[in-house]
Amino acid sequence: MDLVLSGFKQAFLLIIRLDRELLRIILLSLKVSAAALFIAAVFGVPLGAVVGLRRFPLRGAAVSLMNTMMGLPPVVVGLFLYILLSRSGPLGFMGLLYTPSAMVIAQSVLAFPIVASLSHSAVMGVDPVIRQAALTLGATPFQAAIAVLNEARYGVMSAVIAAFGRLMAEVGAILIVGGNIAGLTRVMTTTIALESDKGNFELALALGIILLMISLAVNAVLYLLQRSGGMKRGRSWA
Asked: Over the stretch 158-192, which tens digit does the pLDDT of each residue have?
């Protein structure tokens, strides 16, 4: 019991003192996840909108594929990217393995289907009358799509936030392609795993506390967005 209390005490001291290593790990985690989230949103939101608004052959298969990819095992993603980025792989000449860039790629692959699939669900939840009304009033298909996305904005933002929460908790893929190199590719989740194995529970607990705080903040924002979207729909129905 004393060991546990001592570990939490030292962990809180690291946080209060803004330990340099702790801050470096947290900042790298946020940078990698934010970059991956940006890439996933740039490609995932338009894809979700297109699949939701357009009718094309194999549309059902595309939706099923997006939903299936939401459950991609991180270690499998990391393994495939490792093969691609290794020296003997087709992209080995780029020298990305064991760099933050490789970690961004891995997290982008994991976040992309989440953003795309949830954005598709948000777009499908918009009343079709809105798009039809926009087209009737002379809007182009692109402008009509923007109008639908505007109505689905709470759902789209929820998709992005949900993907960010997944990325912050990710460990398998980035451990494989990043290598958990001190001062270069060590992020919060991989550091917690490594330091726990080494018996350095102070740093692991400090990072765990920070992760829990981030998770709480993400879930709070997600709840507020969903509540705002629900209230808006309630007013529109009224």
From this structure: 899 889 988 988 888 999 999 888 888 999 999 88
Beta carbons within 10 angstroms of residue 93's beta carbon: 9
Q: How many CA atoms lie within 13 Å of 148's alpha carbon, on the beta-carbon side?
A: 33
Query: What residues contact residue 135 under an 8 Å CB cut-off, 6+ apart?
Result: 141, 144
> How is residue 211 written in tokens?
């992760």
Q: What are the chain's domains?
A: 2-237 (1.10.3720.10)
Question: Which DSSP symbol is given to 126?
Answer: S
Whether 77 and 173 have beta carbons less than 8 Å apart is answered as yes
pLDDT tens digits for 207-235? 888 988 988 888 888 788 777 765 555 55
CB-CB neighbours of 213 under 10 Å: 11
Phi, psi of 87 (to 5 degrees): -60, -35
SS3 38: helix
CA-based Rg of the chain, rounded to a whole angstrom?
21
Query: Cα–Cα distance between 143 and 54 in angstroms, integer?
Result: 14
C-alpha–C-alpha distance, residues 215 and 219, integer Å: 6
> Could you tell me if residue 180 is left (phi over 0), alpha (psi between -120 and 50 degrees) or otherwise beta?
left
